[in-house]
From TrEMBL:
PANTHER family in the record: METAL-SULFUR CLUSTER BIOSYNTHESIS PROTEINS YUAD-RELATED, MOSC DOMAIN-CONTAINING PROTEIN
Pfam families hit by this protein: MOSC
Chain intervals with Gly residues compositional bias: 229-242
Organism phylogeny: Bacteria, Pseudomonadati, Pseudomonadota, Betaproteobacteria, Burkholderiales
Domain MOSC: 26-146
Name of protein: MOSC domain-containing protein
Organism listed in the record: Massilia hydrophila
Gene3D superfamilies listed in its UniProt record: PK beta-barrel domain-like
Chain segments carrying region Disordered: 217-242
UniProt feature coiled coil, ranges: none
Length: 242
């Protein structure tokens, strides 16, 4: 049950999944949120990503005259949660709890379906989240903003990369590809890592796969960090009654 001070923010008015290999979201009546992973059957379910679930606001559809699922969201709400700080917890239905990560950028896929959509949206595409506690989510479920919060993730991708690197245990390294995944950015951003890491004196904490392979052949591979302990990776989420 919701805590006495949890605030009702609205309700679920739309649900969808992106199955692996699907080019478009598939509408659903209910979905299952899996703690630490994402939505069951969705291609973005990933225990090491903060981009597990995309929430959008129904008002944006009305304002811009968008076709259903044009924003490719998983959960459509009749309220706008974009103004809530990162780390906020949303209880949806009886048990599921989502942890807000950061705003979702308008990608090229939106531009291809409607030129100019990215500019029209600005920062209103929606909010990305991870699943802190699992449970069934159904159309019409109430959405409560919980009083409890978890640590925030930076909106700027560079700051998020630095946040991840600060969590790398002393004496360990993280591979570029995993660093990008943990920070919630595309692998193409790895090209910018050398300059960013050098500027902050962190180049020794993250290395590309090729460098690590060469080090392994020379017998000098430092232990690799798998992300455990970062943003809930390898740890359970808050219990439904927390």
């Amino acid at each position: 049950m919701p805590g006495a001070e949890d605030r009702l923010a609205g309700q679920v008015v739309g649900l969808a999944l992106r199955p692996s290999g699907s080019a478009a979201p598939v509408p659903a009546i209910h979905v299952r949120a899996c703690a630490g992973t994402g939505l069951e059957g969705d291609r973005h379910a990933d225990a090491r990503s903060p981009r597990q679930v995309l929430l959008a606001a129904s008002a944006v559809y009305g304002e811009l005259g968008l076709a259903p699922l044009a924003l490719r969201e998983n959960i459509l709400l009749d309220a706008n949660v974009a103004g809530l700080p990162s780390g906020s917890l949303l209880r949806i239905g009886a048990q599921a709890i989502l942890r807000l990560s950061f705003e979702c950028e308008a990608c090229g896929a939106l531009e291809r379906q409607r030129p100019g959509l990215a500019r029209a949206l600005g920062g209103r595409r929606g909010v990305l989240a991870s699943v802190a506690a699992g449970g069934e989510i159904r159309l019409g479920d109430p959405v409560h903003v919980m009083t409890r919060r978890l640590p925030a993730l930076a909106e700027d991708w560079r700051a998020r990369v630095l946040q991840v690197l600060a969590a790398v245990p002393e004496g360990m390294v993280v591979e570029y590809a995993l660093l990008a995944r943990l920070a919630g950015i595309q692998s193409s951003y790895c090209r910018a890592f050398p300059r960013l890491l050098a500027a902050h004196g962190l180049a020794a904490r993250a290395l590309p796969a090729q460098t690590l392979r060469h080090a392994a052949k020379a017998g000098a591979t430092p232990p690799r960090w798998d992300g455990t302990g970062w943003h809930g990776v390898g740890a359970g989420g808050p219990a439904p009654g927390d």
